[in-house]
Specification:
Radius of gyration: 25 Å
Structural class: mainly beta
Largest sheet: 11 strands, parallel
Shape: elongated
Number of strands: 32
Length: 285
Amino acid sequence: AAAQTLISASQSFNNLTIKNTSASGVILADALSVGGNLYLSADGANNVLLDAATNNPDVAVTGDLDFTGAGGGTESISMGNSTWTVGGDVNFTDGTIDDGSSTLVMNGDGKTLTANSQILYNLTLENNITFADSFTVANLFKCITASKTLTFTSGQTYTLNDIELDGQAVGTRVTLAPLGGTAYNWNVTADPQTDVSYVDVSYCNASTGSEIDASNGTNNDGDNNLNWDFGVTISGTCRQYDQSSNCADAETVRVAINGVLQAETGTTSTGSWSISYFTLSSDDV
């Protein structure tokens, strides 16, 4: 049978469930706004398709986005080139998505993405989000919102083409942390990877992909990370001319690479100093 067409005409739904009928799918004619939950539910033998690829309207869901049917039919979403903004949990278990060139934005606090190992095109995080299982981001994985924590399930693999992470300031870093206390795996494919600022990361094993350049002086190595470059830290002791007395406290120490003074500085304290976050090559002096 022919597809059905949903025309919202700037109206907002409370909760919306797309069920299986004899129609070949439900085509979104215009922007869709759901104040509650958006469900796809194949309760019988027929399939359910929500088609945003024909007209590419934006979709906004305040609650959850989920496949909920228990019947024999399949449940699928064609996301098109649209922006899908979801405030609740996103669960793609029991269904499939065609990512198109879409962007999934998750903006609800403490919500979970269960991707069922599927592919998203762009994924933007605007709040504290937990990732329950593996997924692939074909284009851009992005979080540039201050003071947010992204939690990755230990042992899972996240394949990310390109990343953009920025917590905006030292006191509001984006935190990348494990759920389970051991490493999660990143496979970052685009090279180079330099769009990382004000990030606090731990237990990220990125060894199978491109090296992540986090050496701009704004990021924090929370330990147990692989294939992240946080730059070089050097340290030493400052002595006065007699070679036995420590230099005064609060003296500024700078390092020169190949005869050029670097911007990074250290400060003496009981003679000791350290300077971090600059980059050295193998033939530098």
